[in-house]
Amino acid sequence: MNDERAGIRNLEEIIEYVIAPGLKREGFRKRRHSWNRKRGEFVEAITIEKSKYCGPEYDAFTMSAGIFIPWMHEAVWHKQPSFVTEVFCQVRARIGEIVGGFERRAPDKWWTPNHRGDYRAVGDEMGQLVLSHVLPFLASFKTMEDVHSFLDGELKYVIRDAHRTINLALVKKTLGDTQGAVEALTTFINRKPGGWAERAKEVLERYIIGERVGPVTQQATGLVKLPEGKSDRELVEEALAKRHNTRRNGNK
Known about the structure:
The protein is an alpha+beta fold. The chain folds into 2 domains: about 5-140, no CATH class; about 145-250. The protein contains 11 helices and 5 strands, in the order H-H-E-E-E-E-H-E-H-H-H-H-H-H-H-H. The protein has helices at about 5, 10-25, 70-75, 95-100, 115-140, 145-155, 160-175, 180-190, 195-210, 215-220, 230-250; strands at about 30, 35-40, 40-50, 60-70, 90-95. Strands 1-2-3-4-5 form a 5-stranded antiparallel beta sheet, with helices on both faces. Strand 1 (about 30) and strand 2 form a beta hairpin. Helix 6 (about 145-155) packs antiparallel against helix 7 (about 160-175), helix 7 (about 160-175) runs parallel beside helix 9 and helix 8 (about 180-190) runs antiparallel to helix 9. The radius of gyration is 22 Å and the shape is elongated.
C-alpha cells in the first residue's frame, strides 16, 4: 500500500487515491463523484452518492452503477445530460443489489466510517468491489436483449416506477415487440394517472405507434374489433378511455 492510501481520512481522498486512478486506467472519464465510459451504443456510469444527512460527526455514502442509452433518454426527455450520473441511466443498480445478486432481500449497502482507519479500510473495500462486481455487472450488458432481460426481470419484484416501465416499452419496440410495448404503457397509464401518465402517453404516441401497427394495437389494447376509418392513435385513446371508465365504474 502506498503512503497516500495508508493515510486516507475522508471520502474525497478515497476517490482521489483509490477509485479515480483505477477507473482512469479502465478508460473512464470523471466529473465530481461520477465516471463515464462509452461502449458502443451504451454509456457506462458509476456514481458515489453521499447521504443527505451527512455532517461533521457523521459520514455515509454508497455506490451505484448503470447503463445509459442516449436515444432512449432523448425519447423521454427531449434532451441529453452533459455528463451521465447513475440517476439518468435506464439500467440502474445500487452496490448492495449488485453484490447481493439482485435477490429480493439483498440489503442496501452504505459505508459509514467514523475514524481515520475506517476510511482506509472502506477505500480498500470499495476499490475491490469496483473490480470484482461493478465492472463485470456493466460488462454483462452487450445488447438490447440484455437490457430487456434486466428491466423485465427487475419489474417482477421491484416497485414499478414510471421510468423503468417507459424504458422497458422502448426496448420492446426496438426489439420488434410492439404489442408488448403498447401493453406495458397502456397498463401503466391506466394504473398511474397524472404527470407520468402523460409522459408515457406521449412516448406511446410518438415512438411506439408512430408506425402503423394495425391489429397489433387492437390486441394489445384489448379491442375486440378493429374499427374502420380510424388511426392507431385514435384506437389507443379509445381503448384507454374505455379501460379507465370500466375501472372507475367497477370501484363504485
